[in-house]
Amino acid sequence: MKIQLWSVGKTHDAYVEDGIEDFSKRINKYFTAEWNIISPPKNAASLSEKELKKAEGILLSAQILKEDYLILLDERGRSFSSPDLAQFIQQRANESNKRIIFLIGGAFGVDENISKRADFVWSLSKLVFPHMLVRLILAEQIYRACSILRNEKYHHS
Questions:
Q1: Of 32, 77, 119, 150, which has the most beta carbons under 10 Å away?
Q2: In what order do the strands lie in the sheet with 32-38?
């Protein structure tokens, strides 16, 4: 199973890049994991919120495959404890999902078509975080879940 971590926006900021790279390497000990940073449309500044979400949705839809399991990160989604997230990931692996995509939408969220396409909507917190921190937290939580699945000490260290 491949874990894809997708984010709409610019490349990782320097203040989080080392942490994101570190946790991503750690995840790769369990599952193949890679980042896909989707650049916003070139004319993003001139678009309304609705137009921007639509344009980003078109970019995303072109890359999401029919068989992908899409997890949309949204503060209105379902929450997990770390052990629950571990079980959720294990279930996806047991179902032989070839590719799980964790998607962090753009500044205004995602287009309705992407929301409808999502197989699951997950909330890291009811709080809203900057996208760069969400990337770091996402990578860390997936690594934590993997360490729980292997009964390793990271979760309680």
A1: 77
A2: 32-38, 2-8, 99-104, 69-78, 120-122
The full length of the chain comes to 157
Of 100, 105, 37, the residue nearest 73 (C-alpha): 105
pTM comes to 0.95
Q: Which amino acid is at 4?
A: Q
User: What is the DSSP code (8-state) at residue 142?
Assistant: H
Which residue segments constitute the domains of the chain, with CATH numbers given?
2-156 (3.40.1280.10)
CB atoms within 10 A of CB 130: 10
Q: What is the pLDDT of residues 2-55, one digit of tens each?
A: 999 999 999 989 999 999 999 999 999 999 999 999 998 888 889 999 999 999
